[in-house]
Amino acid sequence: MSKINELSATKVSELIKNHEITVEEAVLDSYSAIDAKDKEINAFVHMEKEKALEEAKSIQEKIDKGEITSPLAGVPIAVKDNMCIVNEPATCCSNILKGYKSTYTATAVDKVKDSGMVVVGKTNMDEFAMGSTTETSCFGPCKNPVNTDRVPGGSSGGSCAAVAAGEVKLALGSDTGGSIRQPSGYCGVVGIKPTYGTVSRSGLIAYGSSLDQIGPIANDVTDCVKLLEVISGKDNKDSTSILRQDYDFSKYLTEDVKGLKIGIPADYLSEGLDKDVYDKVMEVKDILTDKGAVVEEFNLGLSEYIIPAYYIIACAEASSNLERFDGVKYGYRTPDYEELHEMYKKSRSEGFGSEVKRRIMLGSFVLSSGYYDAYYIKALKTKALLKKAYDDAFSKYDCILSPVAPTTAPEIGKSLQDPLKMYLSDIYTVSVNLCYLPGICVPAGLASDNMPVGVQFIGNTFREDNIIKAAYALEKARKGE
Amino acid sequence: MRDYETVIGLEVHVELATKTKIFCGCSTKFGVKPNVNTCPVCTGMPGALPVLNKQVVDYAIAVGLATNCDITRDCKFDRKNYFYPDNPQNYQISQLYLPICRNGHVEIETKDGKKDVRIHEIHMEEDAGKLVHDEWEDTSNVDFNRSGVPLIEIVSEPDMRSAEEVIAYLDKLRMTIAYLGASDCKLQEGSMRADVNLSVREKGSDKFGTRTEMKNLNSFKAIARAIEGERARQIDLIEEGKEVVQETRHWDDVKESSYAMRSKEDAKDYRYFPDPDLATIHISEEWIENIRANQPEMAPEKKKRYMEEFGLPEYDADILTLEKKMADMFEATTAICNKPKKVSNWLMVETMRLLKEQSMDAADIRFSPENLAKLIELADKGTINSSVAKEVFEVMFNDNIDPEAYVEEKGLATVSDTGELDAIIKKVIEENPKSVEDYKAGKKKAIGFLVGQTMKATQGKAAPNVVNQILTKYLDEA
Predict the structure, then answer these.
(1) SS3 label, residue A180
(2) Active site residue A115
(3) Looking at the predicted structure, is the pLDDT value of residue B267 above 60?
């Protein structure tokens, strides 16, 4: 079964359709990789192997009968633990949701299953997707498969680590401020944060509703784009989902970037950026220039306001979104209380971890009367200015190239000591969410510490075409194809 | 004592008559087992998202147009954050910053004449669930069937000065909204709820006093009593040199007094912000015009038309248009039998009497226009006499029976076989020589007694006018 190891998800699906391997074999191959590696990596927090093998059989039948023809049919996939699957746990890696089982399935997961992929397990994440390291999980930290002393990034660290470790070839993550792109960069895989509204949020346990998007993670751009095609679509269960004119993203898997105008925000290349990462961005610039793209630096502006605006908006929404976890209806309830308000206080104090509590307090503060205008409204104004700056940029460039993170993956245990520094490291990713833009992270090689460096292409809203082209061209060039 | 003026503003919640909830597809039906009409959205399950029911917006616009409001073209929902177990998300989806309707007014009429009450705004929101306390087990359970049922809240300006004006305003709203079909507006059943904001000030002052908000008012009478009670309480405080505290108070209609609600129940920082799960609603001119064009005929126009088209007296037209259901019954029945004045009489007299006797609303009328039309025909043709008709009507009012079948079955038809009637009348004349003599002596009234005797002999089934005719004939001949 080792023959599966080196293959892409699309190729595995082809072999399944040609009856060279079975869906069950692919799933068992995934589980044997998990058995071998996950004790150390801790990418998975929940698995239902028997159920997955049952599903593998029924999917096999459907593929054999020609009822399922998706290019990813039969391929095992991992799902981040903030997405609901009926009768299975969805904990967001928080004690407050331990014991809770979903009563319905997220639309994106439904689509994955309808396309014949087999969910092998739920992956580790920062508690409620709040974090950049996957260390705040109640199931313990996830480790970077490239070097297990390092974090995989976050919050979709489990999904990215599972793909990077070869435990699965595909995974779903969610991205509120970089939670797909940053860990993809740290782990050396490909991840896409689509235009807001492209993938339904129904069944995604909300962090920041106006920022959250589910997106695909895979080893290469092709697999990632194929998975994006599967999960995209307007959903009548999500009022913020949008009907797009075209969901055929595969047709942009072309390395023809001749004449593609790419801008690099000079503001992103100064302060705080590691030399290694800077060098990789410049390497990518040269590669794409060689392929005929026109790459130049420009000033985006506003960079010092991005992080405050993002954390105010994300935390404000989170403080309200997380109110439903109260010990009344599901999840954790403190065993010892006298009356209602004490029950609320103790259940939430004991159930949430410290990073989540920090963000709930921050969010509650900026929404309180007297501070609403000074913080929340000001953050919305900043967001509008930022959107305008991007609009101006996209009037000149087809897409934007930038780092995804200022450094390579930090060592485990180093980041949480200084939360403000951790927040500042989100500088390159959060504006994509604030402005509803699509972004893709692609590997750009190894840094001097032998850790992967990812770069990011950002497109205008609904212009995944340009970033897919740029990413695909870069991938081809780096593989020497 | 100084002369005081009461200043009152109202917050009226109206439950809309949609089939499904405001943000999910669950039924709004009541009277089912707890938590039957629920889904992940209205029970606040993780990851579930609200999707707006367009009918709610249609109804809110219709009410806004009928109350002369401006419709907000880009309106949004906001989250009102507070923790309580009947509120599954621990925030209520409501409207604060951009409510759907603003700056309206309605005209009310009291014994002092007509006046306008201004409407500050109307906003859409979701209802909460219901807590059921199990004293036996010492636990509380939550029933989410009502969670997510659509409401509109109509907020007036402080334009009312007496209980009478408040009742007139509420009646006007109730009638308008019922006419629109947007709600049945029943105070007792909670589909219409009013909170009263009240302050007092010395007459002639142009500054408002400190107001209180009164909750738990379940009937017009309770509202009137609460207004009188709160007015007196505030005046007493001021006269004693104390201050009125701005607070929310709970009215106890049995004790006819109120108490201040605990500050925890009255915490005011709701941390409102726009709900990011719901997009801005863009209301086009076309949307508004479409609703305007489909607005039903309201009471004043109906009244005018009843007088012109059906020749009804103003008094009749007034009463018939007071309640939508009454007007509907009138129009439907008249369409069948084409006897507007007779239909009007049955509705105004007998129907109103029985509704009052049984403390029912017009909305509770069970009999069909078809059956009322049949009854009118039966009485008109003389098949039954008027007292039988009243009896049959009462049965029909209670059980919606078919009057034709009922009269047939019970043998209530008038005795119209003149042979049979002749014989009875002859017998009555024979048995009552004194009355016959009186009649002949010029006491024409004596015939009344003879008619009565005949009716008795026929067990009420004869038509009195026919009896009168035959009697006169025999008496004059003899």
Answers:
(1) coil
(2) no
(3) no
Rounded distance between C-alpha atoms, residue A443 and residue B303, angstroms: 77
**Partner B, chain A 348-377, Cβ-Cβ below 8 Å:** 364, 367-369, 372, 376
Of A323, A329, A372, the CB nearest to B83: A323
Is CATH 1.10.10.410 the right assignment for the domain spanning B418-477?
yes
pLDDT digit string, tens, across residues B36-78: 999 999 999 999 999 999 999 999 999 999 999 999 999 999 9
Minimal Cβ distance to B277: which of A239, A328, A344: A239
Kindly write down the DSSP assignment for every residue of A120-161, as one continuous string. Answer: EEEE--SGGG--SSS-S-TT-----TT-TTB---SSTHHHHH
Stated as kind and residue range, the H or E segment containing A401 is strand A399-403
Q: What CATH topology corresponds to A2-252?
A: Amidase signature (AS) enzymes (3.90.1300)
A155 is catalytic: yes
Q: What is the mean pLDDT of chain A?
A: 96
Nearest CA in chain B to A344: B83
Backbone CA torsion sign across A64, A66, A71, A74: negative
ipTM beyond cut 0.90? yes
Confidence band for A228, pLDDT divided at 50, 70 and 90: very high
Mutation target vs B (from A348, A366, A367; most B CBs, 10 A cutoff): A367
Quote the pLDDT of residue A224.
98
> Least CB-CB distance to A239: which of B81, B273, B278?
B278
pLDDT score at B417: 62
Sorted by sequence, the CB contacts under 8 Å of residue B24 that are 6+ apart come out as: B39, B41, B42, B50, B51, B148
Question: Residue A80 catalytic?
Answer: yes
The whole model's pTM is what? 0.88
